[in-house]
Amino acid sequence: MSDNQTSTPPLSDLYSRHSSKWRRFDADVLPLHVAEMDFEIAEPIRDLIIDFTKRSDLGYLGPVPEVAKAFEGFAKRHWDWQIDPSQLKIATDVGVAAVEFLRANLHPGDRVVVTTPVYSGFFEWLKELRIEPFDVPLITGNHEYRLDLEGFERAFQAGHLTVLLCNPHNPVGRVFSREELTALAELAQRYGATVISDEIHAPLSVEKFVPYLSCGPAAEATGVCITSSSKSFNLAGLKAAFLLTQGPEMAAKTAKMPIGTHWRSSILGAFAMAEAFTSCDTWLATTVETIHENAKHLLAELERLLPEVTSHIPESGYLAWLDITNLGLTSEEIFTKAKVALVPGPDMGGENYKNFARINIGTSRAIITEGLTRIANSR
Ligand SMILES: Cc1ncc(COP(=O)(O)O)c(C=O)c1O
Fold it and tell me: Of the residues 196, 205, 231, 232, which should be mutated to test ligand 1's pocket, given the most ligand atoms within 8 Å of the CB?
């Protein structure tokens, strides 16, 4: 195991953080639920925030070409993908980007395709818009997951022409292949469907990540990417994200959004995002490595402490999907008896997922062990 790890402060310091993760529950609960990492942020971002603050440079966000330029470089370096920087639009966060895109282009009562088990926020965004989810579950077997292309075709045939895709996939950590995404893009183009590709976890991919919009002309004609530095660089509270298109059809759809989506994001968030995508590759590589080692640690500790619980190594991100079928405790009981907060499987798509729970491993290995020990001791 490499010693080059992104550092996590001691638990006592973490409990004094002000974010939702550390404030939502009493101090006897170990919070391993919400998608925030415990790691210390990259130095260039910390310095930028201090510098802006020292100079009282905290006004409204104006034009910020720095973000498009930074992401253009990042996408080229990491994914060999040339974006069109002129088609990038700032939004407050990824949730706001999705909600405002959907509000501008769909109507209450429409249905949007989701692939359960999936990030619980998707259901909240749709509810806010009075849009119903239409589930095309991932095809699964023994901790392997892939897109159900026939299911997408059936949804399109039924007239449900918008997909909210999560790539890399929260909570199962899949990085979808170019073949799967190209096939989805071709189907979407054939039926006149739109794919909103939430790529917020992409920079944390161990496997080579494939941006939806890099999958050729059909993807460019049907896709909009929504993303941010907030997950991968741990900046969720700074509030900045963007939407990106690569062609006139989809640019026309983002043009329908209110211009307020730009002004309602934050100056610190936008400039921190530009910094993240410009000068934090070393921090990111160490963090990806740290999380990968943590995932191996999780599997080894499950084997040692909770052999009846299974999981798999995510191809991306710091969320791991636990199969708790044989544990004899529900996620609610894990919370009440073991005092460990996980995300219950049903939050990610209903009762079909009651035997699953999501754990956050973007922390120290000692904290992962502490969480599993608490669960093991409360069986
Ligand atoms: C897939 C996915 N999309 C969006 C979000 C939320 O992003 P934001 O805070 O930018 O709205 C999360 C948070 O966990 C997520 O996992």
Answer: 231
Which pLDDT score is estimated for 294? Answer: 98
Give the fold, CATH level 3, of 58-279: Aspartate Aminotransferase; domain 2 (3.40.640)
- Whether 95 lines ligand 1, by a CB cut-off of 6 Å, is yes
Cβ 133 under 6 angstroms from ligand 1: no
Residue 225 pLDDT level (bands cut at 50, 70, 90): very high
pTM of the model: 0.97
Supply the CATH classification number for the domain 11-43+281-377: 3.90.1150.10
**How many angstroms is it from 109 CA to the middle of ligand 1?**
24
Q: Is the CB of 257 under 6 A from ligand 1?
A: no
Q: Are 138 and 146 in contact (CB under 8 A)?
A: yes
Check residue 1 and give its pLDDT.
46
Residue 91 φ then ψ, to 5°:
-140, 165
Task: Judge whether 176 and 195 are in contact, CB under 8 Å.
Answer: no
> Over the stretch 293-307, which tens digit does the pLDDT of each residue have?
999 999 999 999 999
Q: What's the confidence (pLDDT) of residue 3?
A: 58
Residue-averaged pLDDT of the chain: 97
